[in-house]
Amino acid sequence: MEIKQAEFIMSAPELKQCPEERVTEYAFIGRSNVGKSSLINMMVRKKNLAKTSSTPGKTQLINFFKINDSWMLVDLPGYGYAKVAKSMKGKFHKIITDYVSRRENLVNLFVLIDSRHQPQKIDLDFMEWLGEEGIPFSIVFTKVDKISSTVLNKNLNHYKKEMLKVWEEMPKNFISSSTSEIGRAELLSYIGSVNTSLEGKFK
Ligand code: GDP
């Protein structure tokens, strides 16, 4: 799929203020600094569509971008900076859990993981919760340009091993680099195929 058009639609502070339009939504989430804004900008090839983490005040909002006038790319707030609490509700902002568990337009959530790091509990817990809630998601291992392919393979194998302690199989996963566009074609092709499979159900 080619991206011909990408336009900012709105920022929503809570679920009930999200757009009413019935189109497929692909949301991106991850710990602060994982490279989410850079990935979104790389996918749409616009430098400043999604604001990077240094932009104050953007963290609590859900940002909607309409792509090719047909589907929505959704930028969710970063997580991981809130004080660790025992319940899921305490760990993730309500806006995240509301959107992710109740948004009917959401057809796939991309969970971003920094490919350089060891598996982090907060990400593993979040994905376990997604599984319990039956929310379709895939993983994107970001910033792969920052490590050698040997280290990347080692880290990916380690991550898979960790996931398989809980999951029967490794969820669908991608690698990405915002500086070299690694993963762009694969992500867009996947989104295109999901959109095609859902044609007719979203009108
Ligand atoms: P966010 O908080 O998840 O939106 O993260 P940002 O997109 O703001 O990225 C955090 C930092 O990592 C910034 O300094 C980016 O330039 C850098 N970064 C993000 N993605 C990549 C990548 O794929 N490769 C490299 N080398 N740096 C990246």
What's this model, at a glance?
This protein has six helices and seven strands.
Backbone structural class = alpha/beta
- If strands are numbered along the chain, what order do they take across the biggest sheet? 1-3-4-2-5-6-7
Beta-strand residue fraction: 15-25%
CATH topology: Rossmann fold
**Main sheet record:** 7 strands, mixed
Mean pLDDT: 91
The kinds of small molecule bound in this structure are: guanosine-5'-diphosphate
What proportion of the residues is helical, as a percent range? 25-40%
Cα gyration radius (Å): 16 Å
- Quote the distance from N terminus to C terminus: 20 Å
How would you describe the overall organization of this protein?
The protein has one domain (6-196): P-loop containing nucleotide triphosphate hydrolases (Rossmann fold), CATH 3.40.50. The protein has a seven-stranded mixed β-sheet, with helices on both faces. The chain has helices spanning 36-44, 88-91, 94-102, 121-133, 149-163, 184-197, and strands at 6-12, 25-30, 62-67, 71-75, 106-114, 137-142, 173-175. The chain has six helices and seven strands. Strand 5 (106-114), helix 4 and strand 6 (137-142) form a beta-alpha-beta unit. With 203 residues, the chain is of the alpha/beta class. The radius of gyration is 16 Å and the shape is globular. Residues 82-86 have low confidence and may be disordered. The chain binds guanosine-5'-diphosphate.
